[in-house]
Amino acid sequence: MSEYLTFLWRCFRVSFVGGWRYHSWMLALTVVVLLGVNAYCKQLVHGLITTGMTDQVSWGLYIANFTFLVGMAAAAVMLVIPVYVYRKHELHDLVIFGELLAVASIIMCLAFVTVDLGRPERFMHIFWRFNFPVSMLSWDVIVLNGYLLLNLHICGYLIYCSYRGRKPSPVFYVPFVFLAIGWAVSIHTVTAFLYVGLGGRPFWNSAIIAPRFLASAFAAGPAFIILTLQIIRRYGGYAITDKALQMLRGIVTVALTVNMFLLGCELFTEFYTESAHMASVTYLFLGLHGYHGLVPWIWTAIGLNTLALFILLLPVHRGLRYLNVACACLIVGIWIEKGMGLVVPAFTPSPLGEMVEYSPTRNEILVCLGIWALGLLLYSVFVRITIPVLSGQLTSDRASGSGEAQAERSTSD
Length: 413
Prior knowledge:
Blueprint: H1 2-14, H2 20-46, H3 61-74, H4 77-84, H5 94-117, H6 123-128, H7 136-164, H8 170-196, H9 209-235, H10 242-273, H11 278-285, H12 295-313, H13 320-338, H14 362-390, H15 400-409
Helix pairs in contact: 2-14, 3-5, 3-8, 3-9, 3-13, 4-5, 4-8, 5-7, 5-14, 7-8, 8-9, 9-10, 9-13, 10-12, 12-13
């Protein structure tokens, strides 16, 4: 226990060490977090009136970000499967960075749910009347918190073993890895069922929602990891091969192709058959009765996803520069598609036929930016701690002062 506490203390100290780029990045994120906290305090005082949500549109930017981040968390499994199922050892150490992203994403998910409640003490209602297994919310509470604990255990154990310079025992983490694979699929499936199970919102009553959630998650998550790994390779001094990045590119390409195919299937079904939720689909893609607030959003998302798929499929665009462009485009496109393009249209028109458009307020946007900054801050700290441990700069075999001195001399920023 004493050695473990020493490990935590040394990791805490290393998280404050870095070059000017690292400190500038952390300072900027801290400022945005404080702005978000200030905006949330205003919301606590005045209520959800500070947001753009209304009686007709009761879910907005908060739940949109929650839905997207659940997919980002689930996407960590796309690094786990090649390593532990197909034995792709070049991705072995990179699994930890994916798992750390999952931890940060789940924390952001929980934060977005908290701010969406308006009054955080309403969380107690879930525990007083859990209503398991009837309520899908109770399932969501279990899968999100369970996935968070699984990833914390896997990451913590592997990093601590590397710190002590010993080989991890498969008994203590491999079963949890395979459990996390199924759990990752479950967290996004359960999130999809939260929408699908609401019979009063026909826009969500489609069996294809869950497969689309998974396909989009397995595209956006690895795309974010690709961008992160290139930053780590360039500024963190950690060796990451092009082969590993190209392998992730293949995963992104397949997942984005499936996502676009499912989108096409859904559009054909809606516009050709004119189903029960045709009004919401028309409002989203073409506008309805003079209301067209989401039309630019969804067509921007489709355009970005199409451009990303075009870049990924062309053999001539195999360079990392084009890969970065494709990843950035599909991340933004899927965020719009799973956020403003999924959550808001189900409320417009309302079951009574009312046309009420939703637009996030400045205070609402600041709260969202604050939570995103918090997640990126945590992920940056996780990565800053992990790199010295994996590279052998911070180990228990050296004297505490010597190990810290070498970590402090690292040029990682």
